[in-house]
């Protein structure tokens, strides 16, 4: 009898355990497969919609953070990209023939370097007035072109001149204008390919003032002028872009865009434009936009400062 009672009690206890286990498993499955009723859906709706943007936001922020790290670790292609903010110097060539456009150029609200031909009607006036307007003054020294029939104008350096004549001509050109900070060549494709003549010209310029700089207008791809200047420890650079080989405003605007690209790539660049009304209009309109983008517009002499 006692054995029978124990057996019945065991069966009852076993059933109770089984029911508890099954109930817990059903509850767990319900949680896993749970589909909320309408009331629950309303309560969860706000939570679901609030969480989605948050997930997207943090995902976006993390991607941006990674991109920032990558940018910080990226080594620029050139040292200039690290140490130099983009700077553009604009040289206006061929000044001295007329006064109307020249006065507009010297009244621009940003720096331009005025490169003036010697011995012309308005040459000295433009140098004096431009200097008063805080514009940098340059000598636009005439030189013989490969096409020897082309006339560079008065005071030109010719390939058939003696060393003494070349040096005296350079000195005469400098003496004809006040306030000169540097010079660049007017025409001169024949002269700037000649190492010996360039040594005479640059040697005389350095003798006049060792602080003067030289800009190679780069009228020929075979120019040695900048190389000679650097060998003589003269501050020198080559022209980067000609702005107005075509006297057309749309063309000049396109050249300004090219100039901007080169400024970001090289750090320091020189543009050469000419004494033309279309060039003036484009500069007046476009340069303020370039300045707002963070590119500096400076006189040529500033490009040679180490801390630029």
What percent of residues are in strands?
15-25%
Structural class: alpha/beta
The level of helicity is 40-55%
Query: What count of domains describes the coordinates?
Result: 2
What is the approximate shape? Answer: globular
Largest sheet: 9 strands, parallel
Number of helices: 10
Q: What's the CATH C level of the largest domain?
A: Alpha Beta
Contiguous uncertain segments of 5+ residues = 1-9, 11-83
State the end-to-end CA separation: 109 Å
N-to-C series of helices and strands: HHHEHEHEHEHEHEEHEHE
Q: In the CATH scheme, what's the topology name of the largest domain?
A: TIM Barrel
Average pLDDT figure:
81
The CATH architecture of the largest domain would be: Alpha-Beta Barrel
* CATH H level, superfamily name of the largest domain: Glycoside hydrolase/deacetylase
Count the beta strands.
Answer: 9
Roughly how many Å is the radius of gyration? 38 Å
Walk me through the structure.
With 308 residues, this protein is of the alpha/beta class. The chain folds into 2 domains: 43-74; 84-304, TIM Barrel (Alpha-Beta Barrel). The chain is 51% helix and 15% strand. The chain contains 10 helices and 9 strands. The chain has helices at 2-32, 38-73, 80-83, 100-106, 123-132, 163-175, 195-208, 225-231, 249-266, 277-292, and strands at residues 87-95, 113-116, 136-143, 180-187, 213-216, 236-238, 241-242, 268-274, 296-297. Strand 3 (136-143), helix 6 and strand 4 form a beta-alpha-beta unit. The model is unreliable at 1-9 and 11-83 (pLDDT under 50).
């Amino acid at each position: 009898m006692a054995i029978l009672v124990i057996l019945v009690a065991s069966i009852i206890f076993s059933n109770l355990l089984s029911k508890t286990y099954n109930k817990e498993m059903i509850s767990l499955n319900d949680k896993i497969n749970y589909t909320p009723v309408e009331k629950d859906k309303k309560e969860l709706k706000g939570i679901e919609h609030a969480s989605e943007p948050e997930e997207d936001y943090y995902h976006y922020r993390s991607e941006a953070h990674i991109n920032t790290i990558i940018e910080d670790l990226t080594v620029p292609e050139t040292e200039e990209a690290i140490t130099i903010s983009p700077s553009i110097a604009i040289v206006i060539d061929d000044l001295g023939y007329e006064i109307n456009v020249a006065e507009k150029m010297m009244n621009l609200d940003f720096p331009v370097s005025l490169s003036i031909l010697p011995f012309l009607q308005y040459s000295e006036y433009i140098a004096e007035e431009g200097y008063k307007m805080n514009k940098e003054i340059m000598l636009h020294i005439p030189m013989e072109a490969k096409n020897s029939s082309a006339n560079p104008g008065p005071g030109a350096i010719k390939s058939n001149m003696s060393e003494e004549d070349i040096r005296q001509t350079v000195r005469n050109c400098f003496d004809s204008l006040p306030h000169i900070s540097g010079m660049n060549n007017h025409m001169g494709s024949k002269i700037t390919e000649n190492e010996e003549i360039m040594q005479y010209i640059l040697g005389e310029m350095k003798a006049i003032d060792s602080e003067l700089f030289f800009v190679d207008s780069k009228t020929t791809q075979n120019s040695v002028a900048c190389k000679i200047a650097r060998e003589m420890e003269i501050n020198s650079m080559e022209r980067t872009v000609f702005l107005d080989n075509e006297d057309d405003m749309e063309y000049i605007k396109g050249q300004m865009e090219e100039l901007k690209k080169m400024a970001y790539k090289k750090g320091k660049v020189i543009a050469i434009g000419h004494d033309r009304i279309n060039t003036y209009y484009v500069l007046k309109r476009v340069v303020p936009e370039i300045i707002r983008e963070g590119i500096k517009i400076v006189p040529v002499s500033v490009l040679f400062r180490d801390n630029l």
